Amino acid sequence: MKSFVALSLLLSSASALARPAPLVSIPTHDAFFNHLSALCGKAFQGKVVVDNQGPSKFDTAKLVMHVRRCNEKELQIPFHVGEDASRTWIITKTGSGLSLKHDHRHEDGSDDTSTMYGGHTTDAGFNQVQSFPADQYSKELFARLGMAQSITNIWQMYVYDHTFSYRLIREGREFRVDFDLTKPVTPPKAPWGYED
């Protein structure tokens, strides 16, 4: 009898380990994630509306965000700057909030030295707005690359009915691009390192 109970406990433990962990989230994170997910497959053109260190190539290049790949846990959003397809924003449900990562690639698909930096939500945020203060990986990366000013980066994303905004702030620095969600454009080719 004891061996039967032990076997039953072992099997139930194994089956619990085999099940994927539930996606634990809170309403504001879900609402933000779902609002972006609703744009899946669509691309939108944007323009720089704030850049206190400009001008830069962002002012003259065609800026396009493409909500390219979506599932219940992750959104992949390439950000094309003219012919430069090196950037993809990755938003992930982590079970303790939302993570934003910047996947930077070279044209051959290899990782840029500065890649996968970003942040994680530290509060509930709002249905339309989430903030991502730099995480520890990013702080260590910036310090190693001599970009200490970026250690205090906070990335913000706003998603409203007509506009999506990507914003970077830190002391002495503000940059924001607004994308017009009322006028979808032809989706660009896959970003560098990804396949159509």
Q: How would the blueprint of this fold be written?
A:
Elements: H1 2-18, H2 27-37, E1 43-51, H3 57-60, E2 63-66, E3 69-70, E4 74-81, E5 84-93, E6 98-104, E7 117-120, E8 129-133, H4 136-144, E9 154-159, E10 163-170, E11 173-185
Antiparallel strand pairs: 1-2, 1-11, 2-4, 3-4, 4-5, 5-6, 6-7, 8-9, 9-10, 10-11
> Under the CATH scheme, which architecture would be assigned?
Beta Barrel
Shape descriptor: globular
| SS elements, strand count | 11
Measure the end-to-end span. 57 Å
Signal peptide: 1-18
Protein name: Secreted protein
Keywords: Signal
Describe, in short, the structure shown:
The chain has 196 residues and is of the alpha+beta class. The protein has four helices and eleven strands; from the N terminus they run H-H-E-H-E-E-E-E-E-E-E-H-E-E-E.
Explain how this protein is built.
By secondary structure, the chain is of the alpha+beta class. It has a single domain (25-185), classed as Lipocalin (Beta Barrel), CATH 2.40.128. It is 21% helix and 39% strand. It has helices at residues 2-18, 27-37, 57-60, 136-144, and strands at residues 43-51, 63-66, 69-70, 74-81, 84-93, 98-104, 117-120, 129-133, 154-159, 163-170, 173-185. The radius of gyration is 20 Å and the shape is globular. This is Secreted protein. Residues 1-18 form the signal peptide. Keywords: Signal.
